[in-house]
Amino acid sequence: MPDSYIIEVNSQTAGIVVRSQGGYCFFASSHRFNRLEGQLFRNAREAERAARKLINGDVKEAA
């Protein structure tokens, strides 16, 4: 299993997730995704879902 993944939403790079103890840590590549910065996710797919929810305005669900 890879140690990092690029997260993209609507052809825009949201950030990367890097495997750490307990999951994958999110690092934002755009200020639009700063709300997810440093959050820990179980896997890359979960981080991608959170980024999609954030970009679609569902902030409560993304955090």
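The above is record 1. Record 2 follows with the same two-line structure.
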Amino acid sequence: MKKLVIAAALVAAASAASAGNLAEPIVEAPVIVEEATGSSSGILLPLLLLVIVAAAAASN
């Protein structure tokens, strides 16, 4: 009876140690979102302001 308990314990330990998946885990790359900015976006607001000031000066 004692040998049967020892054998059962060894079988349980061996099956628990080898449990798992042999395939490599799938790791997805993080998604990086960059906002597209045009080169004219920095100059657009001052140009618009200049046009408004010129229109206001021309109307007087």
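Residues 1-59 form one domain.
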